[in-house]
Amino acid sequence: MLQSMTAFASAAKRADWGSATWEVRSVNHRYLDVHFRLPEGLHEAEFSWRKTINRWIQRGKVDCQLTFVPDASFVPTLHVNKELTSQLVDCVAQVHSQNEGISPKISALSLLKWPGVITIHPQDLSKLIPEFTTLLEKALDDFVMMRQREGTEIADILLCKLNDIFDIVHKARSNVALSFEKQKQKLMSRLEALGSFEKDRVAQEMVIFASKWDVAEELDRLQCHYEEVKNCLATKEPTGRRLDFLMQEMNREANTLASKSQDATLSKLAVDLKVIIEQMREQVQNVE
User: Fold this and answer.
1) Which one of 36, 41, 115, 157 has the fewest beta carbons within 10 angstroms of its own beta carbon?
2) Does 227 lie in the same domain as 213?
């Protein structure tokens, strides 16, 4: 089953310790790139949460944000460094005694802004990590379901485009033999109009012309790629990279088909083929 690399999910919980909300979002990326935005005191859990995400997701740029609003029991406590405060007051008085032009007034807020006067002692949040982990897994469950739903829609689009490619390849095969016969008759008519000519020599030139114009090999490879893409769409493993490679190969065969074409109908089919492959490639860019 295909999975899209674009998704969003959230999970929230409220308890006696406060409230928490996980938000998980992702966009397409060449590999798995996970970023966390966590409250202070929870960074120690990032490694284990990263491993959790690795079990659920294979590719994509994933942003995970945890918003935590603590209860009063988890609010950080503030401590004033009284010794440092006294020293600052003494320093202000000393500066004033040596420089009468300087006002001795100093506000309490100015003292509190001085580095080191206030020390923040955050509450230990480690006991809440299991709660947050369970909440993250709930968000990831919804997140993966959304990726699967979008992946199913992408697979349907790719299958529809793949059927169009099959029809074009079938038309091209039918057109090749008919076009070669027309070119042969056209050449023979021109030669007959000129008068005498060596039939053996003409036969040799026709063989050379046919070998240069032959696109059977390209059509065969397109057919093989068609089958491989169908297999990729049916597998349960992540196939985004493989599908991207197949799109490149199919585009290369379409380019060769267009360059070898000596017929307007075949040229048009080659252009249509390139358009469809490009449309598929744009969809594949978002597949995990």
Assistant:
1) 115
2) yes
Q: How many domains does the chain have?
A: 3
What's the CATH code of the domain at 199? Answer: 1.20.140
Helix pair 216-234, 240-260: axis angle to 10 deg? 160
Question: Is there a single domain that holds both residue 99 and residue 220?
Answer: no
Question: Does 258 reside within a domain?
Answer: yes
Q: Exposed, middle or buried, 169 (CB in 10 Å: 0-12/13-18/19+)? A: buried
Long-range contacts of 90-96 (CB under 8 A, 24+ apart): none
Q: Is the same domain home to 94 and 68?
A: no
Which of 123, 109, 38 has its CA nearest to residue 74? 123
Q: Give yes or no: residues 166 and 246 share one domain.
A: yes
How many Å apart are CA 220 and CA 232, to the nearest integer? 19
pTM: 0.70
C-alpha 55/C-alpha 42 separation (Å) is 21
Contact 222, 169 (CB under 8 A): yes
Phi and psi at residue 34, in whole multiples of 5°? -110, 130
Quick: pLDDT tens for 229-274: 999 988 888 889 999 999 999 999 999 888 877 777 888 888 999 9
Contact at 8 Å (CB) between 282 and 244?
Answer: no
Q: What is the DSSP letter of 6?
A: -
